[in-house]
Amino acid sequence: MKILVARLRLIGDVVFTTPLLRALRRRHPDAEITYLVEAAAAPVVRRNPHISELIVVPRSRGLARVRGDLQLARQLRARRFDLAIDLHGGPRSAWLTWASGAPRRIGYTITGRSWMYTDVVQRAPDLGPRHSVANQWDLLEPLGIAPPTPDADPVEMIADGDAAARVEHRLTAAGLASHPLVVVHVSAGNPFRRWPAESFESAVEQLVRRDPERRVLVTSGPSEAGAARRIAAGARARLGALGAGVPDIGEFDLDELRSLVARAAVYIGGDSGPLHIAATTTTPIVALLGPTLAERSMPWRPAACFAEAVDAGPLPCRPCSQRVCAPGDFRCLTGIMPERVVAAVERAMQR
């Protein structure tokens, strides 16, 4: 049996598909499973043991994208897939699923695109209090696969040995190998999920003052490296003589970030791809949730692994569509006090 799985776009959403891949492999142990993904999220599933082949779709535009998609469609059709599952539901992934020619195609009920599938599944509300893994798992119901649990089917990203060695080398060269490490990820692709820079600075300062042996590594995505440097510099300025507690050892790619988090005592970050990368380790996590709900976005992993959400509490505007801040003051983020985050980190480190 040949199965095509498509999940384009965001890193965190691709992480959320990894329990499904395990379930598909359990149900069809001899199947050839091909995963269609975009380059940014490809490291998440590059070494996944449950897939047979990874196809990386380029993020091109205009005529180049049309030509590329037509060529890819011909390649997919030539593979003669028996089953195609669109875990995304966007126009591009829906079209590629249809163009694969698979006789059975599973996707969401979406106006204007449902005709591309043979099996249509009702899509759960985007803002509902239900986890994203469970929402995507709905697409396995037509195959008779039972619902998941975080203990039985956690998210997964296989460590890259070379990346782990690079990270260990950098930590050793910087004199950090013997220090408790706290990773603080300060960026998010969506600005509605970014905790204010001054709040990050305050939390980092407090963490170092509470234990000067700690080393807090401030990280960010490649498009926001400047934000990480500014926040780290601001924390060092606050700390004065204790500024060595916030070292700068450069940026990390996705595989290196996963290895760094696995090596750390605790991870702190908002609802973005790196939070869910962190969930593929056993490292304790403190999640900063602004407009999103814990029921939907908390790490999907065994309950034995520490994870605590810190948010601003019930608000009439939360959750939201993250397009316009109705009150205008981003209170779901500014209402998260650094002291609460630091207290959660202390609980995590005790575990």
Structure description:
The protein folds into 2 domains: 2-143, Rossmann fold (3-Layer(aba) Sandwich), CATH 3.40.50; 161-350, Glycogen Phosphorylase B (Rossmann fold), CATH 3.40.50. It is globular, with a radius of gyration of 21 Å. The chain has 13 helices and 11 strands. The protein starts with a strand and ends with a helix. It has 351 residues and is of the alpha/beta class. The strands form 2 sheets. The protein has a 6-stranded parallel sheet, with helices on both faces. A 5-stranded parallel sheet has the order 8-7-9-10-11, sandwiched between helices. Strand 2 (32-38), helix 2 (42-45) and strand 3 form a beta-alpha-beta unit. The longest helix has 18 residues, at 62-79.
The major β-sheet equals: 6 strands, parallel
Structural class: alpha/beta
Strand order of the largest sheet: 3-2-1-4-5-6
User: What's the multimeric state?
Assistant: single chain
Task: Evaluate the radius of gyration.
Answer: 21 Å
Spans of at least 5 consecutive residues with low confidence: none
CATH architecture of the largest domain: 3-Layer(aba) Sandwich
How many helices? The count is 13
At the third CATH level, what is the topology name of the largest domain?
A: Rossmann fold
Rounded average pLDDT:
95
Q: What is the general shape?
A: globular
- Assigned CATH superfamily of the largest domain: Glycogen Phosphorylase B
How much of the sequence lies in strands comes to 15-25%
Percent helix among the residues?
Answer: 25-40%
Report the strand count.
Answer: 11
Given this structure, which CATH class of the largest domain is correct?
Answer: Alpha Beta
What series of H and E elements makes up the topology? EHEHEHEHEEHHEHEHHEHEHEHH
In total, the number of domains comes to: 2
The first-to-last residue Cα distance is 45 Å
